[in-house]
Design a protein that fits this description.
Shape: elongated
Number of helices: 22
Helix content: 40-55%
Number of strands: 15
Structural class: alpha+beta
Strand order of the largest sheet: 2-3-5-6
Oligomer: single chain
Number of domains: 4
Largest sheet: 4 strands, antiparallel
Length: 479
Amino acid sequence: MIRLTKDYTHKKSLTVQEEPQDIGYIARALVSASLPHSKPKGLVYKRQCNNFTLSIIGNDEAGGIPYGSYPRIILSWLSTEVFKNKSREIILGKSLSNFMKNLGISVSGGKWGTLSRFKDQMCRLFASTITCTYHDASNGKFISTKISIADKTRVFWNPENFDNIDVFNSKILLGEEFYNEILSNPVPIDIEAVQILKDSSLALDIYFWLTYRMSYLKKPILLNFETLQSQFGAGYTTSRHHKYEFKRKFILQLEKVLEVYNEANVNILDSGILLSPSNTHIRMSDSIKDKNQTIIEQDDLYHSLKNDFSLPEKQILNLLDTYEKSIIRNAIEHTVERLNYNNTKINNITAYLISAIKNSLSPSTHTLEHNENNKQDIDLFLQSIDNDHEKQVLLVLLKQYDIPIFKSWFMKMRVDTITEREVVYVCKTDFIKEYLLDHYKEDILYAWKQVCPSLENCIFHSIRNYASRLEEESICINS
DNA sequence: TTACCTTATCCATCGATAAG
DNA sequence: CTTATCGATGGATAAGGTAA
């Protein structure tokens, strides 16, 4: 429940149509250190917090470095869209006003109207290069991630080149690194809370950070104001006056945040704040929340691959280099689920995992640039099929599903035998067999019923299982 | 440590203008 | 007519500074 003070009731009533507990996401990298609160002077902005450094290089032509609450709102919206659609391309909306209304910002023109300032911040944000560096002091390792928010930006709302066709297709292409960062380290947030706290960039930062911090807090921790200042206090120096000022302003905003996130177990002390384990702001019942709790960080991925799956180091590094973290994580989760589910036997766990990674649980995240090649591949594949019924079923499925899905799953199964009532498929691996069974069996059977109404069942085998079952029979699969 | 101040940002509103 | 952008204004509030 959100408690509203008298100041917010008015604003709340303006956004009645919003669902309570709308879930948004923000990239973890952007929670650990914060953007400037007010207009910075130079073109370089740097912020260090423990072993994490955030530096932003602004683009002079775009105005400089983004600051204030708008970029934070845009970033949380972007992260949410990415998480929802799992696509690097983000569609902004049919107009700037429309876009801003979606974000819950009232629209006004003029030099200091919301439109101009918002436009300015968008330019600054999308033109900036944001670099995150994790410095692991224990082994002297530097992991640096360069995050460019947008690869190419098409701003259509400039009235000079107003074009009706472009208006409805305006989109930005997110930088690959930023995209990966969001997918592998999402922090769930309440969009309504963002709406309420948007007046203060500091409050937004505190909210994002607190939500993230509580999600993995296991025992109480005392954070003194000096630590907090190094993370949140953008313009304050270390002089005594400034320390005092920061403390006062921080507490003021923190109290505001706690009114929204009132389940947070926070005690404000003289020397700092005491965090105790609390419920996260997003309710436990949300499935995505549960998923988020099992987030495996990069190091954990490494250890998991090494200890649980006994992969050689070289192969692990190769996998981490080649595949998105989220894909590997999904594959691990899937494999573990499989193992626990009814004590399913998996002959070779390592091979199963690798196969899961290589076949990626989310084909839609694959690059879409090779559409032409994909079409050729599919044509060739279809030509190689002699059986008319099998081909027709595939054509039905092709209409129903996107090309990447078709390629990832339906091109990796082939009909082995067909009787009047039953069709037997052979799949390339155990993993593909399981996945087809779990996700597409109904649709495949339905497609078959359209082609052969008498059919009642559809059976899947993997090459391995099938081969061992039939022992001497050799099975030919076109690859 | 406190109260007070300046500056910049933020918000709501009005009216003007243009396009469909 | 509706919808969207622009310009201006006044008042509120946040960030950061200063004097006592």
